[in-house]
Write a structure and sequence with these properties.
- The protein is mostly beta strands and 359 residues long.
- It has a domain at 1-198.
- Helix content is 0%, strand content 64%.
- The chain has no helices and 30 strands.
- It has strands at 2-14, 18-34, 41-49, 52-62, 70-78, 80-83, 94-97, 103-110, 115-122, 128-135, 138-145, 150-151, 154-155, 167-173, 179-186, 192-198, 204-216, 219-234, 240-246, 253-260, 263-270, 273-276, 279-282, 288-294, 300-307, 312-320, 323-330, 334-336, 339-341, 350-357.
- It is globular, with a radius of gyration of 20 Å.
- The chain starts with a strand and ends with a strand.
Length: 359
């Protein structure tokens, strides 16, 4: 089964969707499942909001029998969010309302398209779920929040309750959507979350972009430039573990994360020069991209460089059996390690898919 997310407004229909469905938000979203061989629709689940809803992340539930598998979906919305539809399946409609400007949400769907549960995250400010991951009966979520936000009745602790800027959070829920633990991190400026992962030892790992300095688990961490990437590990019980700052003297950060057994691969961007373990990279254009393997001790090991005279951006990263696959958007010629690819005919739509074995 192939599952995808769509963003749309108004009436939407098509071969992969089936009967027309009316979406009210500007925009709203659909999760659509199709047969991988024929493309015939199996089910669709509308994520429909009175104002807007954006799905930022979706992940399969790994490590469980097919009968107990499903998907976890995360994002942000404003107004009233309604999840579910009876047109192609027997789901019950699930509803939550935002507490402020916009809130985050996470929902679990079965392989038949039924909604197991829906959870809201937020407060009176701008809040969002930016990453989700699931393994067995563990669901990890990560995102950003402002002062006054909460998750299932538990306040999210901001770096400074008087500041309007966004901090980061990470939390684990159980298979019923009940909170197991949560942690926050941040500083005096806006921080961003790129994604979250669960490794083979049930550790939770967050990838983020942080500015100036942040506090995480009682420790103060400083960046090397205006912004750097952060890889932070947490035990299965939610205790902070190793942290790694990735960046140079310019504005750098992370965009994606994926697990490979008991380690992670993170994708990011940089300008100028960047030290990745024993290797040093130099950007050939305004900004280049990179991938790097990070172990649980926070050490940077194997790395890969995506370079070119234009702009290179790693837009997606996913684990596959034996390794990982990365999607790279580029506006000019692209060099990935020793492989050279020509410039796209249209600079606005160049794309490359790169697969690599496990480090």
């Amino acid at each position: 089964m192939l599952v995808a997310t769509l963003s749309a407004s108004g009436a939407i229909a098509g071969p992969a969707i089936g009967a027309p469905v009316l979406l009210h938000g500007e925009p709203s979203a659909l999760v659509v499942a199709v047969d991988p061989t024929t493309g015939a629709p199996r089910w669709r689940v509308p994520f429909d909001a009175a104002e807007f809803v954006v799905i930022t992340s979706i992940a399969p539930i790994e490590g469980v029998p097919a009968a107990g598998a499903g998907f976890v979906v995360g994002g942000t919305f404003s107004g009233t969010l309604r999840v579910g539809d009876t047109a192609l399946s027997a789901n019950a409609r699930t509803v939550v309302s935002s507490a402020g400007r916009n809130d985050g949400f996470v929902a679990e769907l079965t392989t038949a398209g039924a909604v197991r549960w829906l959870v809201r995250v937020g407060g009176s400010g701008a809040d969002s779920v930016q990453g989700v991951a699931a393994r067995g009966d563990r669901v990890a979520i990560a995102g950003v929040f402002t002062a006054g936000a909460e998750l299932l009745g538990e306040p999210l602790a901001a770096f400074d309750e008087k500041l309007p800027f966004a901090d980061g959070f990470v939390a684990e829920l159980d298979a019923s959507g009940i909170r197991r633990w949560q942690q926050t991190f941040g500083g005096k400026l806006d921080d961003a979350v790129a994604g979250v992962a669960i490794d083979s030892k049930n550790r939770v790992i967050v990838a983020a972009t942080v500015r100036d300095s942040i506090r995480l688990g009682g420790r103060d961490l400083g960046t090397r430039g205006p912004a750097d990437g952060l890889v932070a590990w947490f035990s299965a019980a939610g205790e902070p573990g190793s942290t790694t700052i990735i960046g140079g003297s310019e504005f750098d950060g992370l965009r994606a994360i994926a697990t490979v057994d008991d380690r992670v691969v993170v994708a990011g961007f940089f300008s100028g020069t960047l030290a990745l373990g024993k290797r040093s990279l130099t950007a050939s254009g305004g900004a280049d991209s990179f991938l790097v393997d990070v172990n649980a001790a926070g050490e940077l090991e194997t790395s890969w460089h995506a370079a070119g005279p234009g702009r290179e951006e790693i837009t997606s990263l996913s684990t596959v059996p034996g390794g990982f696959v990365a999607g790279i958007a580029h506006t000019a010629a692209l060099t990935f390690e020793q492989t050279e690819l020509p410039a796209p005919q249209d600079p606005s739509n160049g794309a490359t898919l790169v697969g690599r074995p496990a480090p």
